[in-house]
Amino acid sequence: MPVTAVIGTQWGDEGKGKVVDYLAERAKFVVRFQGGNNAGHTIVVDGQTYKLHLLPSGVVSGKAGIIGNGCVVDPFVLVQEIRQLQERGLRFDLHLSDRAHLILPYHSAVDLAEEAAKGGAKVGTTGRGIGPCYADKASRAGIRAGDLLHPKRLQEKLALNVAAKNALLKALGAKQVLDAKAIEEQLQAVIPALKPYIVDTVKLLHDAVEAEEHILLEGAQGVMLDIDHGTYPYVTSSATASGGMCSGSGLAPKDIGDVVGVVKAYTTRVGSGPFPTELSLEEGVGKHMSTVGHEVGTTTGRKRRCGWLDLVVVNHAVRLCGVTHLAVTKMDVLSNVGTVKVCIAYQMPDGRKITHVPSDPDEFAAVKPVYQEFDGWGDLGDGSWESMPKEAREFLQFMREKTGAQIKLVGIGPARDQTVLR
Ligand code: GDP
Ligand code: IMO
Ligand code: MG
Predict the structure, then answer these.
(1) Tens of pLDDT along 166-184?
(2) Which 8-state DSSP code applies to residue 302?
(3) Which of 31, 41, 137, 245 has CB atoms 3.0–4.6 Å from 66's, for a disulfide?
(4) Residue in 33, 34, 30 with CA at minimum distance from that of residue 43
(5) Pocket-testing residue among 16, 42, 379, 420, ligand 1, by greatest number of atoms within 8 A of Cβ
Protein backbone atom coordinates (compact mmCIF):
# COMPACT_ATOMS: atom_id res chain seq x y z
CA MET A 1 0.00 0.00 0.00
CA PRO A 2 1.41 3.36 -0.96
CA VAL A 3 0.51 5.42 2.11
CA THR A 4 2.49 5.46 5.37
CA ALA A 5 1.17 7.52 8.28
CA VAL A 6 3.26 8.98 11.10
CA ILE A 7 1.36 9.95 14.25
CA GLY A 8 2.19 11.08 17.78
CA THR A 9 1.22 8.50 20.43
CA GLN A 10 1.43 10.79 23.47
CA TRP A 11 0.67 14.49 24.07
CA GLY A 12 2.60 15.83 21.08
CA ASP A 13 6.28 16.76 20.61
CA GLU A 14 7.30 13.12 20.33
CA GLY A 15 9.75 13.92 17.52
CA LYS A 16 7.36 13.48 14.55
CA GLY A 17 9.23 16.08 12.50
CA LYS A 18 12.50 14.17 12.74
CA VAL A 19 10.82 10.83 11.96
CA VAL A 20 8.91 12.22 8.95
CA ASP A 21 12.08 13.81 7.59
CA TYR A 22 13.86 10.48 7.99
CA LEU A 23 11.11 8.46 6.28
CA ALA A 24 10.45 11.00 3.50
CA GLU A 25 13.13 9.64 1.19
CA ARG A 26 10.80 7.42 -0.87
CA ALA A 27 7.80 9.76 -0.72
CA LYS A 28 6.34 11.71 -3.62
CA PHE A 29 4.16 13.80 -1.26
CA VAL A 30 4.38 14.56 2.45
CA VAL A 31 0.95 15.54 3.74
CA ARG A 32 -0.26 17.40 6.82
CA PHE A 33 -3.88 16.36 7.45
CA GLN A 34 -4.94 18.16 10.65
CA GLY A 35 -3.96 20.93 13.02
CA GLY A 36 -2.32 24.18 12.12
CA ASN A 37 0.49 26.32 13.45
CA ASN A 38 -0.11 25.04 16.96
CA ALA A 39 2.34 22.37 15.78
CA GLY A 40 6.08 22.84 15.96
CA HIS A 41 8.09 20.12 14.21
CA THR A 42 11.88 20.22 14.49
CA ILE A 43 14.30 18.82 11.94
CA VAL A 44 18.07 18.92 12.40
CA VAL A 45 20.20 18.17 9.36
CA ASP A 46 23.80 19.07 8.50
CA GLY A 47 24.02 21.31 11.56
CA GLN A 48 20.95 23.32 10.51
CA THR A 49 17.79 23.38 12.64
CA TYR A 50 14.38 23.91 11.03
CA LYS A 51 11.24 24.49 13.09
CA LEU A 52 8.15 24.00 10.94
CA HIS A 53 4.64 24.94 12.02
CA LEU A 54 2.55 24.51 8.89
CA LEU A 55 4.75 23.15 6.13
CA PRO A 56 5.10 19.36 6.04
CA SER A 57 8.51 18.21 7.29
CA GLY A 58 9.35 16.60 3.92
CA VAL A 59 10.02 20.02 2.38
CA VAL A 60 13.37 20.14 4.18
CA SER A 61 14.60 17.32 1.91
CA GLY A 62 12.93 18.91 -1.14
CA LYS A 63 9.81 16.71 -1.18
CA ALA A 64 6.52 18.14 -2.36
CA GLY A 65 4.33 19.20 0.55
CA ILE A 66 0.56 19.03 0.77
CA ILE A 67 -1.41 20.96 3.37
CA GLY A 68 -4.59 18.90 3.39
CA ASN A 69 -8.23 19.85 3.74
CA GLY A 70 -8.27 18.88 7.44
CA CYS A 71 -5.72 21.55 8.38
CA VAL A 72 -6.45 25.05 9.61
CA VAL A 73 -4.16 27.56 7.96
CA ASP A 74 -3.11 31.01 9.09
CA PRO A 75 -2.34 32.56 5.69
CA PHE A 76 0.06 35.14 7.15
CA VAL A 77 2.06 32.50 9.02
CA LEU A 78 2.16 30.29 5.93
CA VAL A 79 3.53 33.02 3.66
CA GLN A 80 6.16 33.89 6.26
CA GLU A 81 7.19 30.27 6.73
CA ILE A 82 7.54 29.68 2.97
CA ARG A 83 9.66 32.84 2.63
CA GLN A 84 11.89 31.99 5.56
CA LEU A 85 12.66 28.53 4.19
CA GLN A 86 13.24 29.85 0.68
CA GLU A 87 15.65 32.44 2.11
CA ARG A 88 17.54 29.55 3.72
CA GLY A 89 17.93 27.99 0.28
CA LEU A 90 15.25 25.28 0.40
CA ARG A 91 13.31 24.51 -2.79
CA PHE A 92 10.09 22.48 -2.75
CA ASP A 93 6.69 22.18 -4.37
CA LEU A 94 3.68 22.98 -2.23
CA HIS A 95 -0.05 22.36 -2.59
CA LEU A 96 -2.60 23.93 -0.26
CA SER A 97 -6.07 22.40 -0.17
CA ASP A 98 -8.78 24.79 -1.35
CA ARG A 99 -10.95 23.12 1.33
CA ALA A 100 -8.61 23.96 4.22
CA HIS A 101 -10.11 26.50 6.62
CA LEU A 102 -8.35 29.79 7.25
CA ILE A 103 -7.32 31.04 10.67
CA LEU A 104 -7.98 34.78 10.60
CA PRO A 105 -7.05 37.44 13.18
CA TYR A 106 -10.40 37.12 14.97
CA HIS A 107 -9.74 33.43 15.70
CA SER A 108 -6.62 34.10 17.76
CA ALA A 109 -8.39 37.04 19.47
CA VAL A 110 -11.27 34.72 20.48
CA ASP A 111 -8.85 31.94 21.51
CA LEU A 112 -7.06 34.30 23.91
CA ALA A 113 -10.28 35.86 25.21
CA GLU A 114 -11.87 32.43 25.84
CA GLU A 115 -8.79 31.25 27.70
CA ALA A 116 -8.78 34.41 29.84
CA ALA A 117 -12.49 33.93 30.61
CA LYS A 118 -11.88 30.33 31.73
CA GLY A 119 -9.34 31.48 34.34
CA GLY A 120 -7.99 28.52 36.33
CA ALA A 121 -9.86 26.08 34.06
CA LYS A 122 -8.02 27.25 30.94
CA VAL A 123 -6.89 24.64 28.42
CA GLY A 124 -3.46 26.22 28.02
CA THR A 125 -3.87 26.53 24.24
CA THR A 126 -1.14 27.82 21.97
CA GLY A 127 -3.29 30.93 21.39
CA ARG A 128 -3.07 30.44 17.64
CA GLY A 129 -6.84 30.43 17.05
CA ILE A 130 -7.04 26.70 16.35
CA GLY A 131 -10.18 25.92 18.40
CA PRO A 132 -12.23 28.92 17.20
CA CYS A 133 -11.31 28.16 13.57
CA TYR A 134 -12.42 24.51 13.83
CA ALA A 135 -15.57 25.72 15.64
CA ASP A 136 -16.39 27.95 12.66
CA LYS A 137 -15.78 25.03 10.32
CA ALA A 138 -18.20 22.84 12.28
CA SER A 139 -20.80 25.59 12.48
CA ARG A 140 -20.46 26.15 8.71
CA ALA A 141 -19.36 29.76 9.03
CA GLY A 142 -15.71 29.20 8.12
CA ILE A 143 -13.70 30.79 5.33
CA ARG A 144 -11.69 28.36 3.24
CA ALA A 145 -8.46 28.78 1.27
CA GLY A 146 -10.50 28.48 -1.94
CA ASP A 147 -12.49 31.57 -0.92
CA LEU A 148 -9.31 33.62 -1.34
CA LEU A 149 -9.76 33.17 -5.09
CA HIS A 150 -13.28 34.69 -5.02
CA PRO A 151 -13.07 38.35 -3.87
CA LYS A 152 -16.80 38.99 -3.52
CA ARG A 153 -17.48 35.78 -1.61
CA LEU A 154 -14.52 36.51 0.63
CA GLN A 155 -15.74 40.03 1.36
CA GLU A 156 -19.27 38.83 2.24
CA LYS A 157 -18.06 36.04 4.50
CA LEU A 158 -15.59 38.35 6.26
CA ALA A 159 -18.30 40.91 7.00
CA LEU A 160 -20.57 38.27 8.59
CA ASN A 161 -17.77 36.63 10.56
CA VAL A 162 -16.21 39.82 11.88
CA ALA A 163 -19.58 41.13 13.10
CA ALA A 164 -20.26 37.85 14.92
CA LYS A 165 -16.78 37.72 16.43
CA ASN A 166 -16.91 41.33 17.64
CA ALA A 167 -20.13 40.52 19.51
CA LEU A 168 -18.50 37.41 20.99
CA LEU A 169 -15.33 39.29 21.99
CA LYS A 170 -17.44 41.93 23.72
CA ALA A 171 -19.38 39.23 25.60
CA LEU A 172 -16.08 37.69 26.69
CA GLY A 173 -14.98 41.04 28.11
CA ALA A 174 -12.24 41.66 25.52
CA LYS A 175 -11.54 45.24 24.50
CA GLN A 176 -10.45 44.33 20.97
CA VAL A 177 -12.70 45.35 18.05
CA LEU A 178 -11.86 43.91 14.63
CA ASP A 179 -12.46 45.53 11.28
CA ALA A 180 -13.49 43.41 8.28
CA LYS A 181 -12.13 45.89 5.77
CA ALA A 182 -8.70 45.94 7.43
CA ILE A 183 -8.53 42.13 7.47
CA GLU A 184 -9.55 42.04 3.82
CA GLU A 185 -6.73 44.45 2.95
CA GLN A 186 -4.21 42.37 4.89
CA LEU A 187 -5.40 39.31 2.98
CA GLN A 188 -5.16 41.04 -0.38
CA ALA A 189 -1.47 41.60 0.38
CA VAL A 190 -0.77 37.84 0.76
CA ILE A 191 -3.21 36.36 -1.78
CA PRO A 192 -0.81 36.72 -4.75
CA ALA A 193 1.83 34.72 -2.85
CA LEU A 194 -0.64 31.96 -1.89
CA LYS A 195 -2.66 31.70 -5.08
CA PRO A 196 -0.25 29.40 -6.97
CA TYR A 197 -0.46 26.80 -4.22
CA ILE A 198 -4.25 26.56 -3.82
CA VAL A 199 -5.62 23.43 -5.51
CA ASP A 200 -7.94 20.47 -4.98
CA THR A 201 -5.44 18.33 -3.07
CA VAL A 202 -7.92 15.46 -2.79
CA LYS A 203 -7.77 14.90 -6.54
CA LEU A 204 -3.98 15.21 -6.43
CA LEU A 205 -3.80 12.48 -3.78
CA HIS A 206 -6.30 10.20 -5.53
CA ASP A 207 -4.23 10.43 -8.72
CA ALA A 208 -1.07 9.70 -6.74
CA VAL A 209 -2.65 6.61 -5.14
CA GLU A 210 -3.75 5.39 -8.56
CA ALA A 211 -0.21 5.87 -9.89
CA GLU A 212 1.06 3.93 -6.83
CA GLU A 213 3.21 6.85 -5.72
CA HIS A 214 4.41 6.70 -2.12
CA ILE A 215 2.66 9.15 0.19
CA LEU A 216 3.68 10.03 3.74
CA LEU A 217 1.05 11.44 6.12
CA GLU A 218 2.43 13.66 8.89
CA GLY A 219 0.31 13.86 12.02
CA ALA A 220 0.44 16.87 14.30
CA GLN A 221 -0.08 16.88 18.09
CA GLY A 222 -0.65 13.43 19.60
CA VAL A 223 -3.45 10.96 20.22
CA MET A 224 -3.96 12.15 23.81
CA LEU A 225 -4.82 15.59 22.37
CA ASP A 226 -7.45 14.13 19.99
CA ILE A 227 -10.79 15.92 20.24
CA ASP A 228 -12.65 12.59 20.78
CA HIS A 229 -10.07 10.26 22.26
CA GLY A 230 -7.83 12.59 24.26
CA THR A 231 -8.14 14.07 27.73
CA TYR A 232 -11.16 16.25 26.87
CA PRO A 233 -11.49 19.20 27.41
CA TYR A 234 -7.69 19.48 27.66
CA VAL A 235 -7.20 18.62 24.01
CA THR A 236 -6.78 20.31 20.66
CA SER A 237 -9.76 20.70 18.31
CA SER A 238 -8.90 18.21 15.58
CA ALA A 239 -8.85 14.43 15.07
CA THR A 240 -5.22 13.56 15.69
CA ALA A 241 -5.95 9.79 15.67
CA SER A 242 -7.05 7.57 12.76
CA GLY A 243 -10.14 9.56 11.77
CA GLY A 244 -8.10 12.59 10.81
CA MET A 245 -5.80 10.65 8.49
CA CYS A 246 -8.64 9.94 6.09
CA SER A 247 -11.07 12.83 6.59
CA GLY A 248 -8.23 15.35 6.66
CA SER A 249 -6.59 14.15 3.45
CA GLY A 250 -9.35 12.56 1.37
CA LEU A 251 -7.63 9.17 1.39
CA ALA A 252 -9.60 6.00 2.12
CA PRO A 253 -8.85 3.64 5.03
CA LYS A 254 -7.86 0.93 2.53
CA ASP A 255 -5.13 3.21 1.12
CA ILE A 256 -3.28 3.38 4.42
CA GLY A 257 -0.60 0.77 5.01
CA ASP A 258 1.98 1.16 7.75
CA VAL A 259 1.13 3.41 10.67
CA VAL A 260 4.25 4.58 12.50
CA GLY A 261 3.55 5.69 16.06
CA VAL A 262 6.21 8.06 17.37
CA VAL A 263 6.94 7.47 21.06
CA LYS A 264 9.24 9.59 23.17
CA ALA A 265 11.14 7.30 25.58
CA TYR A 266 9.50 9.30 28.38
CA THR A 267 6.42 11.55 28.33
CA THR A 268 5.93 15.29 27.98
CA ARG A 269 2.88 17.51 27.91
CA VAL A 270 2.36 21.26 27.34
CA GLY A 271 -0.71 23.00 28.75
CA SER A 272 -3.25 21.86 31.34
CA GLY A 273 -4.81 18.46 31.98
CA PRO A 274 -4.13 15.15 33.70
CA PHE A 275 -0.73 13.44 33.34
CA PRO A 276 -0.43 10.31 35.55
CA THR A 277 3.37 9.80 35.31
CA GLU A 278 4.29 13.48 35.76
CA LEU A 279 7.47 14.24 37.73
CA SER A 280 8.64 17.45 39.38
CA LEU A 281 10.81 19.58 37.08
CA GLU A 282 12.66 20.94 40.10
CA GLU A 283 14.64 17.83 41.01
CA GLY A 284 15.78 14.34 40.07
CA VAL A 285 14.85 12.63 36.82
CA GLY A 286 12.11 15.18 35.95
CA LYS A 287 14.69 17.96 36.05
CA HIS A 288 17.08 15.80 33.98
CA MET A 289 14.40 15.16 31.30
CA SER A 290 13.52 18.84 31.16
CA THR A 291 17.09 20.15 30.89
CA VAL A 292 18.97 17.38 29.05
CA GLY A 293 15.95 16.84 26.77
CA HIS A 294 15.59 20.62 26.17
CA GLU A 295 11.87 20.22 26.85
CA VAL A 296 10.68 23.68 25.87
CA GLY A 297 7.73 24.13 23.50
CA THR A 298 8.73 24.65 19.84
CA THR A 299 5.75 26.94 19.22
CA THR A 300 5.19 28.85 22.46
CA GLY A 301 8.49 28.48 24.33
CA ARG A 302 6.63 27.15 27.40
CA LYS A 303 8.38 24.56 29.60
CA ARG A 304 7.01 21.11 28.84
CA ARG A 305 5.82 19.01 31.78
CA CYS A 306 7.85 15.76 31.97
CA GLY A 307 7.35 12.24 33.35
CA TRP A 308 8.04 8.54 32.83
CA LEU A 309 6.92 6.62 29.74
CA ASP A 310 3.25 5.64 30.01
CA LEU A 311 2.52 2.48 28.02
CA VAL A 312 -1.20 2.65 28.88
CA VAL A 313 -1.26 5.89 26.89
CA VAL A 314 0.87 4.48 24.06
CA ASN A 315 -1.37 1.40 23.81
CA HIS A 316 -4.44 3.66 23.63
CA ALA A 317 -2.83 5.23 20.55
CA VAL A 318 -1.78 1.85 19.12
CA ARG A 319 -5.35 0.56 19.28
CA LEU A 320 -6.99 3.75 18.04
CA CYS A 321 -4.65 4.20 15.08
CA GLY A 322 -3.69 0.64 14.17
CA VAL A 323 -0.04 1.42 14.83
CA THR A 324 2.12 -1.21 13.09
CA HIS A 325 5.56 0.25 13.86
CA LEU A 326 7.09 2.34 16.62
CA ALA A 327 9.68 5.08 16.21
CA VAL A 328 11.15 5.56 19.69
CA THR A 329 12.83 8.92 20.15
CA LYS A 330 15.08 10.52 22.76
CA MET A 331 16.54 7.29 24.14
CA ASP A 332 19.75 9.30 24.63
CA VAL A 333 18.04 11.61 27.13
CA LEU A 334 17.51 8.64 29.47
CA SER A 335 21.19 7.61 29.29
CA ASN A 336 22.80 7.67 32.74
CA VAL A 337 19.61 8.35 34.76
CA GLY A 338 19.92 5.01 36.58
CA THR A 339 16.78 2.90 36.93
CA VAL A 340 14.19 3.65 34.23
CA LYS A 341 10.49 3.34 35.03
CA VAL A 342 7.62 2.49 32.68
CA CYS A 343 3.95 2.76 33.60
CA ILE A 344 2.20 -0.50 32.66
CA ALA A 345 -1.17 -0.04 34.42
CA TYR A 346 -3.18 2.41 36.51
CA GLN A 347 -4.38 1.88 40.06
CA MET A 348 -7.83 3.35 40.70
CA PRO A 349 -8.71 4.97 44.08
CA ASP A 350 -10.65 1.78 45.02
CA GLY A 351 -7.53 -0.35 44.47
CA ARG A 352 -8.59 -1.85 41.12
CA LYS A 353 -5.92 -2.03 38.40
CA ILE A 354 -6.81 -1.10 34.84
CA THR A 355 -4.83 -1.08 31.58
CA HIS A 356 -6.93 1.35 29.55
CA VAL A 357 -7.38 5.13 29.53
CA PRO A 358 -10.59 5.95 31.46
CA SER A 359 -13.02 8.09 29.46
CA ASP A 360 -14.09 10.13 32.49
CA PRO A 361 -11.74 13.08 33.17
CA ASP A 362 -12.06 12.90 36.97
CA GLU A 363 -11.35 9.16 36.92
CA PHE A 364 -8.27 9.71 34.74
CA ALA A 365 -7.05 12.50 37.00
CA ALA A 366 -7.32 10.16 40.02
CA VAL A 367 -5.34 7.16 38.70
CA LYS A 368 -1.93 6.31 40.10
CA PRO A 369 0.71 4.78 37.81
CA VAL A 370 1.85 1.20 38.36
CA TYR A 371 5.50 1.01 37.32
CA GLN A 372 7.81 -1.67 36.04
CA GLU A 373 11.50 -0.88 36.57
CA PHE A 374 14.33 -1.43 34.11
CA ASP A 375 18.10 -1.30 34.46
CA GLY A 376 19.34 1.95 32.97
CA TRP A 377 21.88 2.40 30.19
CA GLY A 378 24.82 4.66 29.42
CA ASP A 379 26.24 5.48 26.02
CA LEU A 380 24.00 4.26 23.18
CA GLY A 381 26.74 3.13 20.83
CA ASP A 382 27.71 3.95 17.26
CA GLY A 383 24.25 4.08 15.66
CA SER A 384 23.80 0.35 15.03
CA TRP A 385 21.26 -1.84 16.82
CA GLU A 386 24.00 -4.28 17.82
CA SER A 387 26.09 -1.58 19.51
CA MET A 388 23.21 -0.44 21.70
CA PRO A 389 23.61 -1.57 25.32
CA LYS A 390 21.67 -4.68 26.30
CA GLU A 391 19.60 -2.68 28.85
CA ALA A 392 18.37 -0.25 26.17
CA ARG A 393 17.48 -3.13 23.85
CA GLU A 394 15.57 -4.84 26.67
CA PHE A 395 13.56 -1.64 27.27
CA LEU A 396 12.72 -1.44 23.55
CA GLN A 397 11.93 -5.15 23.36
CA PHE A 398 9.50 -4.67 26.26
CA MET A 399 7.73 -1.90 24.32
CA ARG A 400 7.53 -4.20 21.32
CA GLU A 401 5.94 -6.98 23.42
CA LYS A 402 3.49 -4.71 25.24
CA THR A 403 2.28 -2.91 22.09
CA GLY A 404 2.51 -5.65 19.48
CA ALA A 405 4.10 -3.10 17.12
CA GLN A 406 7.56 -3.53 15.61
CA ILE A 407 10.38 -1.15 16.48
CA LYS A 408 11.19 0.61 13.21
CA LEU A 409 13.68 3.20 14.34
CA VAL A 410 15.26 4.59 17.47
CA GLY A 411 16.38 8.17 18.05
CA ILE A 412 19.71 8.66 19.82
CA GLY A 413 20.03 12.41 19.19
CA PRO A 414 18.19 15.23 17.41
CA ALA A 415 20.04 15.06 14.07
CA ARG A 416 18.82 13.08 11.06
CA ASP A 417 21.84 10.76 11.24
CA GLN A 418 21.39 10.09 14.98
CA THR A 419 18.89 7.39 14.13
CA VAL A 420 19.18 3.63 14.56
CA LEU A 421 17.28 1.70 11.93
CA ARG A 422 15.97 -1.66 13.14
P1 GDP B 1 7.26 17.05 17.11
O2 GDP B 1 6.30 18.16 17.41
O3 GDP B 1 6.69 15.71 17.42
O4 GDP B 1 7.83 17.12 15.72
O5 GDP B 1 8.48 17.26 18.11
P6 GDP B 1 9.23 18.65 18.48
O7 GDP B 1 10.10 19.02 17.35
O8 GDP B 1 8.26 19.64 18.99
O9 GDP B 1 10.07 18.21 19.73
C10 GDP B 1 10.97 17.15 19.68
C11 GDP B 1 12.35 17.67 20.07
O12 GDP B 1 13.22 16.59 20.30
C13 GDP B 1 13.01 18.50 18.97
O14 GDP B 1 13.82 19.48 19.57
C15 GDP B 1 13.86 17.47 18.24
O16 GDP B 1 14.99 18.04 17.59
C17 GDP B 1 14.31 16.60 19.39
N18 GDP B 1 14.55 15.19 19.06
C19 GDP B 1 13.89 14.37 18.21
N20 GDP B 1 14.38 13.11 18.29
C21 GDP B 1 15.37 13.15 19.20
C22 GDP B 1 16.23 12.15 19.77
O23 GDP B 1 16.18 10.97 19.44
N24 GDP B 1 17.12 12.58 20.74
C25 GDP B 1 17.19 13.89 21.14
N26 GDP B 1 18.08 14.21 22.08
N27 GDP B 1 16.39 14.83 20.63
C28 GDP B 1 15.48 14.47 19.70
P1 IMO C 1 3.11 19.15 17.79
O2 IMO C 1 2.55 18.86 16.43
C3 IMO C 1 2.26 19.67 22.04
C4 IMO C 1 -1.56 21.52 23.08
C5 IMO C 1 -1.54 22.88 23.72
C6 IMO C 1 -2.79 22.78 24.59
C7 IMO C 1 -3.75 21.99 23.73
C8 IMO C 1 -4.74 22.84 22.95
O9 IMO C 1 4.30 20.02 17.79
O10 IMO C 1 3.29 17.88 18.56
P11 IMO C 1 -4.50 24.36 20.79
O12 IMO C 1 -3.69 25.59 20.54
O13 IMO C 1 -4.23 23.25 19.84
O14 IMO C 1 -5.97 24.66 20.89
O15 IMO C 1 -4.05 23.88 22.25
O16 IMO C 1 -2.93 21.25 22.82
N17 IMO C 1 -0.84 21.40 21.79
C18 IMO C 1 0.33 20.79 21.63
N19 IMO C 1 1.14 20.22 22.54
N20 IMO C 1 2.58 19.62 20.73
C21 IMO C 1 1.75 20.16 19.81
O22 IMO C 1 1.95 20.02 18.49
C23 IMO C 1 0.59 20.83 20.25
N24 IMO C 1 -0.42 21.48 19.62
C25 IMO C 1 -1.29 21.82 20.58
O26 IMO C 1 -0.37 23.07 24.47
O27 IMO C 1 -2.51 22.02 25.73
MG1 MG D 1 6.21 19.93 18.51
Answers:
(1) 999 999 999 999 999 999 9
(2) P
(3) 31
(4) 30
(5) 42
